[in-house]
């Protein structure tokens, strides 16, 4: 395996494998037939690119999207790998160069669009193909959304060339898997790897709608300059929200299926290439997106199912660096999604399954504990850690909602399931509206029995009742709420139900979110300088920024501050070729930046507190992730450090007052040591 490790470091610049990659690389390199199911961002490409370099001959890679193929080839060439592509987008010079490299036996990876297989692949028999790798292998499934008829030719190609085949996909359901085995492997079950669905770097959060446009604008404002996607339920909303974002000073585009194909392509390319662009889109946006550094995904409307949710948020953070998501939902979303299922043309059993998939998502939206555990439980994964969702950040406040729900259910039954939440709430609150009086609903026993909550609270209770599928809007009764069987045990007093209180209150309180930075305040200026350098290279080479270095690599540079080219080589993502090409330029940025001090530090220049400050900073860097290096990153602001550096009477209590509990606990003792040595 030493060979493998050397190539991994040298070409890709990685110190180790991501979970699951090692075994797959080993099996593929050994020439086994392999089917690997990995979540998006799991690092599938490496699992065929690395074996391709370790094996004799050329590896043929079949991939469905031409633009992405071209980017992958560019990225490989940047890393010094002989790679080429044969697609309809090629210039004739490009095609000539590929054939020349092929016949000289130089090419290691040949990317091919599936259509190319129809045009004939006889030449492959003569050029020493080592193996076939199939990306997005689920495209072979006739029942899937991404079916590509030309994928059906791959099985024959494999038999023709008599080489091993490795298939990769993020779609794991059993039917699709069986179809892949049948169509690509002729029914012979390959060595199969199924990697868990967890994406630990993606922060999960839901919020009840409360001025959704404002909520999205605030979420984006806290992440200014980072690439993100906002998913909307309707085409017109994408345009309005994109305009609002632009007005707020963001670079934002809209995207939906009703746009001309050419305009859609332009939007996709801009998003792929530009740094920090926001795309406001319907779900039509996604298949053509392969950007590893999408830093956030927000849903302005509830997605249609738990699978759709997982897939859409999964587009964030494929590079493994922290990414954030926010999904908004409200009673109207639930009504709309239910109606879409009920009014669809699917047969009844399919509709029932769709309701169940929506219920799973609503259960996640109304979850009382950890989102990740709830989400992964749906995919039958139980051993999951988290600490990276809104409910782990701040546990939900729960109250016994049994009585409230029973009152609401009885109001629905007494009015014979003919009314929506608004009127029902009027009854519960004892409001004598015209409608209430005309129908004689002020005479009901449930009239005015719900005065302990206000309208807002009742709205949240009704929303949660819909979320728990106790009641469903009936499209044939203009959305009137009707009980489901799930409500009966509660009504009969055989079951209790816990509801969230904070979604009721948080809606009203709505605090402005803090600006989310990817690095500490100290390192932020250096990170922007590194990004600017990257942008310059990317623009000159006309490639997406991540082809030069991905975010994670720049973050590591900003934090570790390599001082020599040797240091630089140790940064993850800096392989030999990239070191040679870009190392010096980025090193210059790091070293140059060191001379540009933070204003708080500059004020101390020439004084002894200045060198104390530098030592505090070094100590802080060592402890940024705690003594064992596994805790959440934490740092003090520059002005806090400056104050510590100038403290006269330093002790634990004074530090605690200045830094707060968490920082004092992490850094206090070490800071005191520094001050004692200096004093
Ligand atoms: P996907 O599984 O979605 O196709 P990719 O192959 O595009 O994922 O990889 C996603 C990102 O992860 C890329 O930016 C890649 O450089 C990075 N990556 C892959 N393997 C590793 C590794 N072992 N160490 C660090 N980064 C990695
Ligand atoms: Zn959690």
UniProtKB/TrEMBL annotation:
Q: Which residue ranges does UniProt annotate as crossing the membrane?
A: none
Q: Which cofactor does it need?
A: Zn(2+); Mg(2+)
- The record places domain Rhodanese at 214-270
Please state every residue range assigned to the domain named Helicase ATP-binding: 25-190
| Domain HRDC: start-end pairs | 520-600
Q: What is its EC number?
A: 5.6.2.4
In alphabetical order, the GO MF annotations are: DNA helicase activity; hydrolase activity
The segment(s) forming the Helicase C-terminal domain are: 212-362
One protein family per Pfam: DEAD
InterPro entries assigned: DEAD/DEAH_box_helicase_dom (IPR011545), DNA_helicase_ATP-dep_RecQ (IPR004589), DNA_helicase_ATP-dep_RecQ_bac (IPR006293), Helicase_ATP-bd (IPR014001), Helicase_C-like (IPR001650), HRDC-like_sf (IPR010997), HRDC_dom (IPR002121), HRDC_dom_sf (IPR044876)
Q: Which family does it belong to?
A: Belongs to the helicase family. RecQ subfamily.
The protein, known as = DNA helicase RecQ
Provide the gene name from the record. Answer: recQ
């Amino acid at each position: 395996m030493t060979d493998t490790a050397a190539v991994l470091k040298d070409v890709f610049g990685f110190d180790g494998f991501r979970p699951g990659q090692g075994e797959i690389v080993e099996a593929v390199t050994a020439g086994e037939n392999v089917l690997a199911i990995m979540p998006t961002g799991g690092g599938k490409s490496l699992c065929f690119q690395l074996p391709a370099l370790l094996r004799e001959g050329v590896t043929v890679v079949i991939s469905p999207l031409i633009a992405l193929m071209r980017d992958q080839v560019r990225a490989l060439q940047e890393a010094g790998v002989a790679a080429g592509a044969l697609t309809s987008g090629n210039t004739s010079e490009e095609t000539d160069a590929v054939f020349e490299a092929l016949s000289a036996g130089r090419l290691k990876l040949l990317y091919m669009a599936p259509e190319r297989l129809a045009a004939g692949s006889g030449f492959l028999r003569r050029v020493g193909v080592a193996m076939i790798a199939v990306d997005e292998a689920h495209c072979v499934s006739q029942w899937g959304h991404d079916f590509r008829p030309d994928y059906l030719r791959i099985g024959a190609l494999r038999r023709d060339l008599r080489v091993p085949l490795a298939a990769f996909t993020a779609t794991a359901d059993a039917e699709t898997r069986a179809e892949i085995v049948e169509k690509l492997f002729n029914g012979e079950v390959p060595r199969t790897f199924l990697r868990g669905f967890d994406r630990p770097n993606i922060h999960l959060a839901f919020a009840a709608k409360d001025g959704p446009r404002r909520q999205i604008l605030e979420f984006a404002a806290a992440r200014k300059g980072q690439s993100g996607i906002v998913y909307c339920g309707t085409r017109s909303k994408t345009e309005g929200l994109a305009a609002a974002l632009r007005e707020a000073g963001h670079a934002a585009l809209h995207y939906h299926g009703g746009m001309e194909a050419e305009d859609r392509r332009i939007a996709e390319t801009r998003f792929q290439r530009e740094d920090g662009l926001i795309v406001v889109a319907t779900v039509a946006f996604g298949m053509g997106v392969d950007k590893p550094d999408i830093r956030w995904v927000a849903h302005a409307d509830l997605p249609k199912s738990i699978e759709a949710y997982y897939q859409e948020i999964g587009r964030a953070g494929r590079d493994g660096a922290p990414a954030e998501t926010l999904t908004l939902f409200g009673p109207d979303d639930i009504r709309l999604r239910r109606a879409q299922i009920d009014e669809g043309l699917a047969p009844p059993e399919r509709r029932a399954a769709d309701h169940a998939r929506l219920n799973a998502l609503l259960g996640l939206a109304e979850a009382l504990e950890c989102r990740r555990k709830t989400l992964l439980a749906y995919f039958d994964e139980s051993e999951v850690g988290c600490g990276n969702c809104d409910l782990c950040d701040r546990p939900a406040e729960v109250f016994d909602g049994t009585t409230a729900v029973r009152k609401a259910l009885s109001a629905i039954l007494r009015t014979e399931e003919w009314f929506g939440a608004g009127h029902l709430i009027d009854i519960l609150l004892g409001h004598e509206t015209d409608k209430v009086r005309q129908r004689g609903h002020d005479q009901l026993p449930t009239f005015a029995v719900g005065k302990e909550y206000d309208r807002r609270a009742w709205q949240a209770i009704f929303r949660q009742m819909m979320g728990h599928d106790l009641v469903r809007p009936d499209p044939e009764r203009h959305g009137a709420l009707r009980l489901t069987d799930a409500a009966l045990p509660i009504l009969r007093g055989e079951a209790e139900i816990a509801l969230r209180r904070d979604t009721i209150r948080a809606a009203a309180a709505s605090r402005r979110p803090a600006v989310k930075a990817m690095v500490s305040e100290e390192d932020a200026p250096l990170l922007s300088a590194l990004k600017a350098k990257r942008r310059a290279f990317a623009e000159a080479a006309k490639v997406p920024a991540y082809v030069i270095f991905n975010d994670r690599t720049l973050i590591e540079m900003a934090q570790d501050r390599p001082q020599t080219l040797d240091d630089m080589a140790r940064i993850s993502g800096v392989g030999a070729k990239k070191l040679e090409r870009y190392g010096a330029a980025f090193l210059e940025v790091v070293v140059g930046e060191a001379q540009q001090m933070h204003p708080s530090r500059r004020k101390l220049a020439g004084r002894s507190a200045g060198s104390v400050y530098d030592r505090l900073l070094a100590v802080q860097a060592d402890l940024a992730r705690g003594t064992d290096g596994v805790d959440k990153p934490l740092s003090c602001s520059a002005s806090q450090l400056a104050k510590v550096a100038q403290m006269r009477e330093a002790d634990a209590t004074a530090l605690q007052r200045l830094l707060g509990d968490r920082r004092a606990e992490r850094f206090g003792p070490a800071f005191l040591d520094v001050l004692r040595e200096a004093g």
